[in-house]
Specification:
Helix 1 packs antiparallel against helix 2. The radius of gyration is 16 Å and the shape is globular. With about 220 residues, it is an alpha/beta fold. It has six helices and nine strands, in the order ααββαβαβαββαβββ. The strands form two sheets. Strands 5-4-3-6-7-8-9 form a seven-stranded mixed β-sheet, with helices on one face.
Length: about 220
């Protein structure tokens, strides 16, 4: 099916997210621009623009668009920002950030998913840097980052990620048990203290790694 066939659905999804409280026009424009149907399994393409999470294989999901929008809005990104994503998954969140002008570095622990996402993002013209590794350790080679977004639920906030932020940078990470998490929006202050805001009520796949859940 041609990409333009979903133009109306993309705009309708952005309108739904605005009604749900997403106020950042740049986030909404990215949601209305990125072809989410390219990031879902072919059997689920008819559901691509529903505001729901969908399976992508290997017990992973493409996040609900509202969740992607909330996390992206919480990052407060600007064009040119260096952003680290933990958990590439389908590549949809990386595409949203790249559309907003960010330099995106993304880590995925499943090599198969990483390769699928890299091939798709390259095909669609997005410039994203990939790594297959334990995301809970971050990616110090390209640190410090203006923002770090974690797309899986963690039992605690890894100090390793906070240490890779620039002063003024933000870490957005779901924290809780394996059933439900709250989003923690952690800003690194100039004196190395942190300020945390909390957005309640989310559910993610578990963050596996040294500073996450055990596999």
């Amino acid at each position: 099916m041609a990409d333009h066939a979903f133009n109306r659905e993309r705009q309708e999804l952005a309108d739904i997210l605005r009604k749900k409280g997403i106020s950042d026009d740049r986030v909404l424009a990215a949601i209305a621009s990125v072809h989410r149907h390219r990031f879902v399994q072919s059997a689920l393409i008819h559901r691509a623009y529903e505001d729901v999470a969908l399976p992508i294989g290997l017990n992973q999901t493409i996040s609900q668009p509202y969740t992607v929008a909330v996390m992206t809005q919480a990052l407060g990104v600007q064009p040119g920002d260096r952003i680290l994503e933990i958990g590439t998954g389908s590549g949809y969140q990386a595409a949203i950030l790249a559309t907003m002008g960010c330099q995106v570095f993304t880590i995925e622990r499943h090599l198969e998913l990483m390769n699928q996402a890299r091939t798709l993002l390259e095909t669609l013209g997005y410039r994203v840097v990939f790594r297959c590794a334990d995301g809970t350790l971050g990616w110090s080679n390209y640190a410090p980052y203006n923002g770090i977004v974690v797309t899986a639920g963690a039992p605690v906030v890894p100090d390793s990620l906070i240490k890779q932020l620039k002063p003024g940078g933000r870490l957005v990470i779901p924290v809780g048990d394996e059933r439900i998490q709250n989003l923690k929006v952690i800003r690194l202050l100039d004196d190395n203290r942190t300020h945390t805001d909390t957005i309640e009520g989310f559910k993610f796949v578990p963050l596996i790694g040294v500073h996450g859940w055990k596999s």
